[in-house]
Amino acid sequence: MPRSSLAVDTVVVHFCSNVVADPKSPYRFDAITQTFRSGGVAPHYLIDREGTIFLLVDEARAAYHAGKGRLPWSPHRENTLNDFSIGVELMGIGTAEEMELFIPASRYGDIAVSDLGFTPAQYVALNRLIRDMEKRWPSIRHDRRHIIGHDEYAPGRRTDPGKLFDWSQLGLPATAGGQNE
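^ thats the sequence. predicted structure below, dont judge the formating
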């Protein structure tokens, strides 16, 4: 269903990989997008390790990326954030603790250190994408109440983008706490 240009006010940042099935080669585009399809989820965008931005769902449509959750500030968007947000997945892997939802700690060591976290090219691409979205969607402000991590909407259920994501690369503080609405 198409959305009003005023409806979208949030960007949700996620991490994704195919590390569960293939810890030695976790960033195969086809495997990741198949995981999305199998799980019944769909982000608007996917940014690969080289900074290439892939449009998966048109911004004018709601995509199923946020799921159940609640923002800790008003409006809480309880279980409805998909209707008000654009989801951006970055190919990346979090800390061992963050990945325990997906793989046992004993397998975390199979992941190459170079595959952990995010690349400089991804931050450049994400910055460019967010700036473009802010122009198209006037309700998205460049602050941590409008550009959030999935973990802030669904704490306990989701850990992405995680501790390895450097919010300062977007010119933003690490947490949303303490900002005015």
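Strands lie at 10-16, 45-47, 53-55, 85-91, 147-149.
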